[in-house]
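[agent] plan:
  1. take the single chain provided in the ticket
  2. run structure prediction with default settings
  3. attach structure tokens to the ticket
  4. add a short note for the reviewer (M.T.)
[agent] executing step 1
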Amino acid sequence: MPNIFWAWAAELVLVTHWLFVLFVVGGLLLIWLGNVWNWRWVRHRGFRWLHLAAIGVVVAQSWLGQICPLTRLEQWLRQEAEQSGFQGSFIAHYLNQWLYFQAPWWAFVLAYTGFGLLVLFTWWYIPPTRNVAPKSSASKSAKNTEIR
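[agent] step 2 finished; step 3 output follows
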């Protein structure tokens, strides 16, 4: 395969990784904002389970000393593209600056664990609700006529 294929595949993995991080971090922010502004969807049980599972995987990986599979895949694809390290296109350059930074391993474990605990606290403080469909306007108007 040509190097450009591997390079583009690495870019795709990088963007996917970035979207995952955005879902985990942004999802928590949206839950809190949604609680303040009464957005019903932030209490959707499916969304909340997916969010909890996402941070759970990150915390488990950090405690087990595992590197994220997306990071490993991107590194392998960049090797296949004969790129050194995380150098790549414009997109890769700027997304890598935000996504990958140097710190001791314990700092990541501490940060991921703290964030995971915040997600668990949010689950308790702003609990998800059962997925009950809103009543239709026809049933509401029928109730209104019965009351009169």
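[agent] step 4 note for reviewer: The chain has a mean pLDDT of 85.
[agent] ticket updated
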